[in-house]
Amino acid sequence: MSLDRFSRQYEARTPRSKALHARAVKVMPGGNSRTTTFFDPYPFYAARGEGARIWDVDGVERLDFNGNYTSLILGHAPPEVVKAIQEAAALGASFPAPTEHEVRLAEILTQRIPSMETVRFANSGTEATMNAVRVARAFTGRHKIAKFEGAYHGTHDWVMVSVTPDLALAGSRKRPKPVAGSAGIPPAVLKHVVVLPWNDPDACEKTLVREADSLAALLVDPLLGIGGVLPPAPGFLERLREVTARRGILLIFDEVISFRVAPGGAQERFGVRPDLTTLGKIIGGGLPVGAFGGQADVMAAFDPRGGRGRISHGGTFNANPLTMAAGVATLEALTPERYRQLDLLGERLRSGMTALLRRLKRPGQVSGVGSLFCLHWTKKRLTDYRSSRPEDPGQPLRVFMGLLNHGVLLTQRGLGCCSAAMAEADVDGFVAALEGVLQSD
Fold first, then answer.
1. 230, 292, 347, 439: which has the highest count of C-beta atoms within 10 A?
2. SS3 of 39, please?
3. What is the pLDDT of residues 347-384, one digit of tens each?
4. In sequence order, which residues have a C-beta less than 8 Å from that of residue 107 and are 6 or more positions away?
């Protein structure tokens, strides 16, 4: 089925969303404030969510395997989190002072993540990686950073490089060239960002050694999440840890997405300890949040006591009590049994999709770890950003639109997640919906 036909079916079911979008474009560029949620002909407008499901303003119900881009690990409106937010809000939405909720969430995080000796809170993953990069430069006295091709670390200039680069501009696979990820990125930024190939330890070591004297940090998403949830090859993260430690380069794990794969995140799952860690998404219980932390001696640059602080870190809503309370309630609900449940759901879903693709003889693959997964429309062996690019560039969007019409919400590029609100029947429902889409495509 063509994209146009999927779109016509969608429009027929969502007239109220269409009307809201017509109003929105008059007052916002493109009618929205989140580029990632926009798609043609228009996005649906959410009305409510409960558990594993989301309803739009037209009353259409969908299974939510997007989870607000992996943020809602307990599903929509979990009672314990709603209660925590309500109780905190009744006492005041924000204050020009810290609260006990902030201390409690910091205690939980530092207990779960041994490498995070101390932590500070912000309002987004973007802010978290921005501050981690800043403190790495302050601590090392160096100015360049390294990142991986196909990795997303937020929207500040220093990391909006080679996120989804045009390969005609990106150079060789082993020595990728930095490519601006957005209009408005100053050319000077590209001179201070070193780009590496995922899952190629030898090429990474050569580049890191060559650039070591000017590199403050290596920023790593341990799963290359937005790049397609492509797990590290055995020994790859360990090699990065060894090289960076030897050369005095701070290793930063961006666990904004990957923190959901274990109580202590991907660093627990893979047994590699970074110098700094950035967090977001699930630790806010559905509210805006960011966090960054690590070695106490590195983080000491933020300590304002006695005028010692070398880095000022403010923010009117940093450690907002509603967010902190929601985060505490969420992490307390994430017991070892919950993680086992999430792992089983993720494995059932990946296995079901893999079996379906083989049975239908479709050129697709499924990657993932724990409760995370990603559909890839290629026959190539999945190793890095370049290998994961779809052979038919239009296929991901056709599948996305088809799933919408079959009552399932994913992301446009095929990234998804399971939540603790789901059951095996929900996972099987996803596979059945995907079969319906592929048979009509």
1. 292
2. coil
3. 999 999 999 999 999 999 999 999 999 999 999 999 99
4. none
| 147: annotated active-site residue | no
- What's the fold here for domain 3-73+335-440? Aspartate Aminotransferase, domain 1 (3.90.1150)
CB 206 within 8 A of CB 137: no
Active-site residue, from 10, 144, 147, 281 = 281
Active site residue 174: no
pTM given for the model: 0.97
Domain 79-333 top-level CATH class: alpha beta
Question: What are the pLDDT digits (tens) for 284-343?
Answer: 999 999 999 999 999 999 999 987 779 999 999 999 999 999 999 999 999 999 999 999
Supply the DSSP string of 305-341, one letter for each residue: GGG--SS----TTTT-HHHHHHHHHHHHH--HHHHHH
| Cα–Cα distance, 401 to 315 (Å, whole number) | 38
Q: Helices (DSSP H) in 172-249: which residue ranges?
A: 187-191, 201-211, 236-247
- CA–chain centroid gap for 371, Å, is 13
| DSSP class per residue in 147-181 | EETT----SSGGG-BSSS--TTTSB-SSSBPP-BS
Decide: 420 and 52 in contact? Cβ < 8 Å.
no
Q: What's the first-to-final CA gap in the chain, in angstroms?
A: 4
Domain ranges of the chain: 3-73+335-440, 79-333
